[in-house]
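Example record

One chain of 321 residues, shown exactly as stored in the release files.
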Amino acid sequence: MSIATSGLHHVTAIAGDPQRNADFYLRTLGLRLVKTTVNFDDPGTYHLYYGDESGKPGSLLTFFPWKDAPSGRHGTGQATTTSFSVPEGSIGWWQRHLAEQGVETSRVHSRDGEEALTFRDPDGLALSLVAHPQGDPRAPWEGGTVPAEHGVRGLHSVTLSVDHEDATAEMFRGLGLEFAAQEQNRLRFTAGDGGPGAFVDVLVTPDAPRGLVAAGAVHHVAWRAPDEATQAAWREELVGDGVNVTSILDRQYFRSLYFREPGGTLLEIATDEPGFTADEPLLELGRALKLPPWLEPKREDIDRMLPKLDLPAENNPEVLG
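Predicted structure tokens for this chain:
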């Protein structure tokens, strides 16, 4: 394939109670809620986007929170760990901070020169904080509850669990990712120039159960395309390779297409444009419920169905001013 991604765009997961979800990602992890909208296919449900100050591609973890959603099961055919990048030397601070918040963590462990700390969110989603030895030049969200010197820089990587690696590895190579390393049953691939935000690990676990996507599990993993023209060309190549690909869908803040890699994980290609300031100013991101034009006539009904969210004032800097 002649078109290659530069890295991760976002990861989308399923959550339970939306307020509990917002409290954890805003107050405990110190991310910014950059968009409060709805699941376009189920507008009675929020779609919450967390990231850096402006929600740049590669910083985003998003959720569909269903309050009564059953618990998912981690296993093959899905992304089983989502990792964030933090500064080198910050892992100890995070270990203490999470303990103070009542979050149980693993011991700090090292792999390929990176220090990592693993834990779970309130719904059981597997998360990791990783400090890359060469650092991460991306800026953190400085207005949140976590000091900027320790703040999350964006996504670091995702880990996909599969029964067998051959077909998955072949598709990743076709998407422009390069094989970088292998440690026992874990294979690492890199996109673009590599580094945090451009890694995907493939964990081969043939004896693991099949995963179930529900609360506490990843729904899909999105890769970056710079613009709609590149995305359209990419779709043509995938279709030509016999991949079952959706049409290009308007997600208001980017355009999307979806397909599954051979191991079963749902993948997305999402455009970098137009971004989250398409319908509200940077300083006001996430404060108000935003709907796409085709759902605006139903705003009153949608607003009635959605529970109210209590957001920290730090999410909107001018509120504090």
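Notes: The mean pLDDT is 94.
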